[in-house]
Amino acid sequence: MATFVLRRPFALTSALKQLPKAASSTTRTFHSSPVKQQLFTQRSTTPLSSTLSKSRQTFQNAFRRHESSYQGIPNPAAGGTLGQRLLYGGAIIGGTVVAANLLFNRETREDGGMPPYERSFLNETFAHTGLGIGIIGVAASAMHRSGWSYRLMATNPWVVVGCSLVASLGTMYGTFNTSPDNYVQKYALWTGFNVAQAAILSPLLFLQPALLARAGLYTVAMMGSLAFVGATAKQEKYLYLGGPLLAGVALVAVSGFAPLVLPATAVRTLMWSERIWLYGGLAVFGGFTLYDTQKVLQHARLAERGLVRKDVVNESISLELDFLNIFIRMVRILGMQQRRK
Predict the structure, then answer these.
(1) How many Cα atoms within 13 Å fall on the side-chain side of residue 222?
(2) Which residues, listed in sequence order, are joined to residue 108 by a DSSP beta bridge?
(3) What is the torsional sign of CA 25, 27, 33, 38?
(4) Can you give the pLDDT at residue 98?
(5) Is the separation of the CB atoms in 308 and 302 below 8 Å?
(6) For residue 207, which of 52, 307, 97, 70 has the smallest C-alpha distance?
(7) How far is CA 187 from the centre of its chain?
């Protein structure tokens, strides 16, 4: 639990890297140029709705320029019939599961397979994980349609970081410290935690739905395969990864803050920090998926013996954050690949 708590404060702040490049430059100009001074000096005389409308138009133009780079690019999953698309997605997920199983899972369990209580505990945890991701998606879509994304991107990045950490950590610790017997309060705090994630990730909806769908498919394939490996591997085989992964996520988090601290002239440093955040983060949170899956099974065994309380809501938060961190990196990688074409 200590490993989990120490690494999670950086989960939301790393999502700031997913803002499109054009919009990022617009936001930086908005906060550092004389336009900012002019805007804030006129607030007393300009109606709030007019200011919000101008800001929204500015970001609409910025994202329109950014999204124009995605037009006309062929997508093998976008064409064909529904059956072909399902076959394409199934091949990706199945191939990833087989490859990951052959690579990581050469030593499987020797205790006759997963006991029923472990299977039930794991199924309930992943059901809550899927429900939490669904709540985040619905809430992010509703916030985006209401104009929240524009207001979020017009806010100082450090204010966004601070508020997101307070909201996320507050609801997360509240969920952890609430007894499973008090299910109304626990599920209310858990829902608030998911809404906090949705609030910071809503600007991703400026991107094309096809791009987000592909990123989601690849994330499901990666997490599903690694979770399968973790569930069928020897007991506690990957639990030793907690310490190294904590060190890795600290490095990834520091690299994620680099664009907010370093000057724009430090091009090479920013380039390497971007790569560490992107590919290093993908490897780190893939490792956390293995670790968290085996941690869930360990807690299932402890709960069966009566040593700990059964609490699948707490377990699902860990897997949700693994999913989100992998997803936003998949979005970034796919966007970079399309811009190179």
Answers:
(1) 23
(2) 233
(3) positive
(4) 53
(5) yes
(6) 70
(7) 20
Tell me the whole-structure pTM to 2 decimals: 0.69
Alpha carbon distance 174, 70 (integer Å): 41
Tell me, what amino acid is at 35? V
Rounded mean pLDDT for each run of 10 residues along the chain, 341 residues in total: 42 43 36 35 43 48 42 45 55 55 51 80 95 96 91 82 88 94 94 94 90 92 90 82 84 80 77 86 92 93 91 95 94 84 62
Asked if 243 contacts 294 with a C-beta cutoff of 8 angstroms, the reply is no
Residue 230 CA to residue 288 CA, distance in Å, equals 10
Q: What is the residue whose two structure tokens read 């709540």?
A: 135
Retrieve residue 110's tokens: 């020797």
**Which pLDDT score, from 0 to 100, does residue 110 have?**
57
Distance CA 96, CA 218 (A): 9
Which of 177, 125, 152 lies closest to 56, judged by CA? 152
- 59, with CB counted inside 10 A (0-12, 13-18, 19+), is buried
Structural element, H or E, at residue 281? helix 281-304
The sign one gets for the Cα dihedral 39, 44, 48, 53 is negative
Quote the radius of gyration of the chain (alpha carbons, Å): 21
- What's the 3-state SS for 150-207? HHHHCCCHHHHHHHHHHHHHHHHHHHHCCCCCCHHHHHHHHHHHHHHHHHHHHHHHHC
Both structure tokens of 183:
């299910």
The token pair at 153 is 């991107």
Helix (H, G, I), strand (E, B) or coil at 90: helix
What DSSP character marks residue 10?
Answer: G
Exposed / middle / buried, residue 212 (Cβ in 10 Å: 0-12, 13-18, 19+): middle
pLDDT score at 90: 57
- Cβ atoms of residues 228 and 213 within 8 Å: no
Considering all CA atoms of the chain, what is the largest pairwise distance in Å, rounded to the nearest integer?
A: 74
